[in-house]
Fold this protein.
Amino acid sequence: MCRVLVLALTAGLLGCTGERASRPVSWMERLRPFQADDKDVVQIDVALVEIPAGDHFFNGGLWQFVDEQVVPLEKKAQLEDNGFRVGQVGSKPPQELLELITQKRTCPAPRRFELHAGRSGRPLELGPPRAKTSFQVYQDEQSSAVELEQATCSLLLVPTLGEDGRTKLTCTPQVRHSGKGLMPWRPLADRSGWALQLQQPTEAYAALGWEVSLAPGEFLVVGARFDRPGTLGHEAFVRTDEPAPVQRLLFLRTARPGAAFDLGLPSVASDNTSSRPPPLALQASWSSVRGACP
C-alpha cells in the first residue's frame, strides 16, 4: 500500500511542473517583455464575461463586431451544431466589447497565465461545477447522449509558436466529472500493481476542438448559441442552475516573448472598475433582471 501511495504522489508532483502558476493581475495592463530564456513561453490573458442568460445584445448585436470566419466553414457548422460560437476580434476592439471586459460587473475575475508552447497545455474552467449535466454530442450526422455528475466544463488550451509573431491556439472542450460508477483504482503501466486515481476523470471531445492563429493583441471569442439547448456549448456557457441565471462569454488574448508594445487599450484600475457607463443595451437588460427579481 505504501508503495502505491508513493508512486501516485510522485506522479502528481511531476505533473505540476509543466507550466507556470497562474497569477491574478489586471489583465488589460500593458504587456511586459519576457526574459531572454523564455522564448517558448506564451502569455494568455483571460476575461470570462458574465451577463444575464438570454441577453439580447449578448446573443445578437455583439457578434456583429466578431469575425466568425476564423474557423473553416465545415468546422464552424460542427461547432454550431454542438452549441459553440467562435470568432476573432482585432487588437483594438470596439468600445462595446471593451466595456464588457473592463468592468467588474461583467468581468469579475480577469487573469493571466503563461504556458510553454507545444506542451500538454492547460484546462481553463468555464464556470463552477454542475451537480448533473446532460447533453448531446453531434458528429458525422450522428448524435450520442452524455450524462455526467459533478461536472466542470473547460477548454484545454495548447499554444504553438507560429510565423510572424503569431500564436496558434488549439482549443479542446473537456468535462471533468465525479466518475460515478468507475473504479478509483487503475493498474500500473507494468501491471505490477494498482494505483489510486487521485484526480477526477476527464472527458475530452477532441473532434469538437478547433485551432486559430492569433497575431499579438488579437482576441479569440468563445461563447454559446443560446438557441441550442441540450448541447455541450450551451451547457458550458449558459447556467440557468446558478442562483442568478447567467450566460458567459470567453475572451482570450495571447502574447509572444519580447512583445513589449502598447495595445492602445485603456488601463484598468486595481478594482477593475471603469468610469464609463455600460452600453445602453446592457443597462436595459440589467434593469429588467433587477425588476424581475425579489
Q: What stands out?
A: DSSP finds six helices and 14 strands in the chain. The helical segments are 2-14, 56-59, 73-81, 95-102, 232-237, 280-292.
